[in-house]
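If I may wish for something, please sit down with the protein I am sending here and say whether tokens and residues agree:
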Amino acid sequence: MSAIPRPTPGQTVGPFFRYGVEFPGGEHLVPQGSPGSVRLYGTVYDGAGEPVPDAFLEIWQTDASGAVPAAEGSFHRDGETFTGWGRVHTTDDGGYEFFTVEPGGGFFAVALFARGLMDRLHTRFYLPERADDPFLAALDEESRATLVAERTPTGLRRDIHMQGDGETVFLAFR
């Protein structure tokens, strides 16, 4: 008699996941300081408003002209090829930063992996000039504000609040 297969119990995503997923240059979609480059940065906060030191983020984006990159080799940074993808771990104070170009498509697609999550969370960071996007227009003002990056003297800033006051809007894909 054969056993009936059962689903494997769910596990949370961390804090153990850092080993084996880091790679050199994951935050550099383009070389820092190169023409047209921008720093995308912020802090990840938990529901109590405390920084999350053991999360990581991935971004996907179009190039500056709005084209979806088709280059291979996302894990190898050669300093010239733009793949439109990056991965970075948060620092001890919950901070993260990427060096990239502003996406011609108007937003960065973001995935967040962190302790206590059963799966990654998806969101977007919009350029301030693209706040007229139809998706954003469908949200109330408070929700919309959680997705629009702030232009600062040092780049584009967008914090992520996993829960609580100012909780970032997360997207569900079906």
